[in-house]
Every structure is written in C-alpha cells, then in structure tokens.
Amino acid sequence: MRKYILFLLLIIFALQNTQAQDSLNCKVDKAYIASLGKDIKPFIISPAKWSRNQWIATGSVLGTAAILYSQDRQIAEFWQRNQSDGIDKANEYFFDPFGKMYYTLPLMGGFYVYGAFAENNKAKRVAMDFVQASLYSGVVVTLIKHIGHRHRPYQTDPLNPYLWDGPITSDWNRTSFPSGHTIMAFTFAAVVGTHYKETIWVPIVVYSLATLEGVSRMYSNKHWSTDVLIGGALGYAIGTFVVNRNHCKLKTIPIISSNFSGLSFSYPL
Question: Rounded CA gap, 176 and 65, in Å?
C-alpha cells in the first residue's frame, strides 16, 4: 500500500503546478449520479460517430490481436520458461495489485478528498471520471467474459488458447477473455493520463504501470496475450471516452449590462 500512497503524493505534487480549469465546484451530487446513466446511450453508440483515425486504430488493434491469437501458446510458453523468484515477488507485490479495484478505488478516493480540501476541481474530476469509467469497464468486461467463456492458460493442459465454451456453459470459471485486471489498469491510466497529459511524466508512469500489469497477467499464467491486448485497448477507449465527455461541463457566458459585467457559469445536466 505504501507505493500507492507514494504515487498519490507524486500526483498531488503535479497538481500543485496545475491550475484547476473549472471555476464551479465539481461535486458527487444528484447531477453527477444522473450523468452515470445518461452517458450509457452515448457510450453504446459512440462507434457510430468514430472518426476515420479511430476506425484505423481499431482495425490495427484487431489485426494485431489476430496475429497474437496464432501465437498465444508460444507466448505463454515463453513466460513460463522465464520464471524467477525475484520477478515472482515483484509481480505479487508491485505489478499485479495495480489492476485490482481495492487499491485503485482508495487511491481515487484520496484524489477526491485532496481536491475537496485543496479546492482543486481537477483532482475531483479525476476521481469522478475514474469511478464512471471503471463502472463501464466492469460491465463491458463481465459481459464479454461470459459470452466467450475462454479457458485460462492454467486451465488447459497442454496449453491450448483455442478453447472457448461460449455463452451456454455449466462452468462459469472460464473467464480469460479479456483480462479484467488489464482493462481496469488501462482505465485508470487513461483517466489519469488524459487529465494530466500536459505533465509529461504522469502519462509515462501510469501507462507503464498499466503495461506491466498486463505483462504480469501473462507471467502468472492467468491470461493469454490476446486477453491482455484487448483488455488494454478497451480500458484505454473507455477511460478516454469518459474524460472527453467531461461530466463537470461548464459553459462560460459573458454578461455585459449597463451596471454589471462578468461571467456566468452553467452546469448542464
């Protein structure tokens, strides 16, 4: 847990050099709760509004996944051949926890508390966006897992990445595809990295940690490489979608009259 406290302190240090962009307080209130549901439809239909570059990126990910799918067994064998006590400990105590919600949620809670006390709206927005993005990621990954019911590497002997039970199965423990830890790690990285993209080291750190989380899932024989790739891509897409929706939407309207001039701020629901 100490490493996550240190990470929070590093982000807070970055916050000190970042001016909050909003003049209106961002709160966890009825408007925020309502926005969680209102954005479901835009989230579902968002591919219909993708740009040409987004479709190219999606095609590139799917093409890479197709190549990796043919090499999943060989990649799994590589990681199992390269085990060591030192990497085992690093994986257990540093890499793997990054994708677990009982670490990242308290960390985001720290963001919100800091933002509330320091009157830093950006910190609160990070926490609020992460909560929403993680909810979406959790639903998406659960649905896909139980549609495919792919066998995990350790559930096959010999290794066989082509075992899928499909949606109708009596064994619901076959949930390899996609990687839940990786989607959550990249959701976290996308939210934090997008909000603090102007502080170059923040995206580097969070995306590096998310990538190491994906590697750790393969190293521990829990996931195939395609599970990790698709999980990471989904986490990134969902995290950036939520941030770009910008739930603490502020409209700034200049007011000029004979006896008063200033700015009006509105928060659309």
Answer: 15
- Amino acid 84: pLDDT: 83
In a domain, 222, yes or no: yes
Domain that residue 51 falls in: 25-266
Q: Which residues pair with 164 in a beta bridge?
A: 150
Q: How many domains, the chain?
A: 1
In this prediction, residue 35 has a pLDDT band, given cuts at 50, 70 and 90, of confident
pLDDT 10s digits, 59-102: 999 999 999 999 999 999 999 998 888 778 777 777 666 666 66
- Side-chain half-sphere CA neighbours of 3 within 13 A: 11
Domain assignment present for residue 14? The answer is: no
| Residues 210, 185 contacting (CB under 8 angstroms) | yes
Contacts of 27 (CB under 8 A, 6+ apart): 124
- Asked, for residue 2, whether it belongs to a domain, the answer is no
CA 160/CA 175 separation, integer angstroms: 14
132-153 per-position pLDDT tens digit: 999 999 999 999 999 999 999 9
* Residue 247 maps to a domain: yes
pLDDT of res. 23: 39
List Cβ neighbours of 252 (8 Å cut-off, separation of 6 or more). Answer: 263, 264, 265
Euclidean distance between CA atoms 96 and 92, whole angstroms: 6
Write phi, then psi, for 41 (nearest 5 degrees).
Answer: -60, -50
Could you please report the per-residue DSSP string of 122-190? Answer: HHHHHHHHHHHHHHHHHHHHHHHHHHH-BPPGGG-SS--TT-B--SS-S-TT---SS-HHHHHHHHHHH
